[in-house]
């Protein structure tokens, strides 16, 4: 049975009263991935459990934030979909689409694919990669282990843990973080002079296509530096069974010069790639953030960065642990509508002769003598929950808030069943 930390479940073995965790599918440096089931719908999901302590101690907080921010932007039939993010005091849970067919790596490790089957998967891969690039996202770790198959054996790109966004590009127009899996890394990354995220993804796609059709890596050596030299020189040979069109295509994908390497747009025009492509009829949904979190009615929504900030001290009983925040700030979760919360604040303040100035999903409370001020803001966390943030601006007389006003708002606090 999977391990649960305190407060993870509202009933034994059920995560947040919604997901039943099953067998362990895989593990990484600070995360484990489980098979899960939505107990209400029966839908299978993959649940990535991230250990917050390891994330914090390892300095990976920004890394996790970025992965969430990337995944929430993507909705495409060939990209693993993120359904929601949940959090407790010790863990962050990514609830994602479950790819029943497993890793593409497992399939190809049993033997090379036919050229036609390789082309089909490559077409799906390039369609997904092109979509990500159009959203300003670069994967940077494309390899068969990160390509999953659904129940229909269609491809799903996964694991954006090393992904980059356009806002990481430096003034020289390039990315500079050294990352990726050695056998799939582009030569310009080895040069350590900066690189174009789109071009290194194309290189990795070329390696993947070679592996699918050959059954082995184009650049491989037991000595890592020797392998890097081969990559840098573009020293590879196609197997004798490779068709002339595919040889030519691979040479363009694995061009060591990023300036002349084929682009995603050019890939779509290549004769080898286009064969049968129109039959795929690949389409994708566009989406907005509001679709991911539900209809917010123009609500003030928390983005992925806010979500992680709150989740670092989230308590599933409904209250926010304040040890990491200033004593002048209080936060709690509520399942009530923002309108009802503001209305309740106004009624409570009026009973204590305090004035309330409403401002959308916020309010300012001021004492009758003008001496006490509290600012209240409401943020959408999920479709069902909001975070109420209260900032006490005058600490010397905050007893007015603590003893008279605040206790009357307890009825708004969300309590998990």
Automatic annotation (TrEMBL):
Alphabetized UniProt keyword annotations: ATP-binding, Kinase, Manganese, Nucleotide-binding, Serine/threonine-protein kinase, Transferase
This enzyme's EC code(s): 2.7.11.1
InterPro entries membership: Kinase-like_dom_sf, NAF_dom, Prot_kinase_dom, Protein_kinase_ATP_BS, Ser/Thr_kinase_AS
Record Pfam families: NAF, Pkinase
Reactions accelerated catalytically: L-seryl-[protein] + ATP = O-phospho-L-seryl-[protein] + ADP + H(+); L-threonyl-[protein] + ATP = O-phospho-L-threonyl-[protein] + ADP + H(+)
Any one GO molecular function term: protein serine/threonine kinase activity
Record bears the keyword DNA damage: no
Domain Protein kinase: 19-273
Cofactor(s) the protein needs: Mn(2+)
Alphabetical list of Gene3D superfamilies matching this protein: Kinase associated domain 1, KA1 (3.30.310.80), Phosphorylase Kinase, domain 1 (3.30.200.20), Transferase(Phosphotransferase) domain 1 (1.10.510.10)
Binding residue positions for ATP: 48
A single GO BP: signal transduction
Family as reported in the entry's similarity comment: Belongs to the protein kinase superfamily. CAMK Ser/Thr protein kinase family. SNF1 subfamily.
Protein name (Swiss-Prot/TrEMBL): non-specific serine/threonine protein kinase
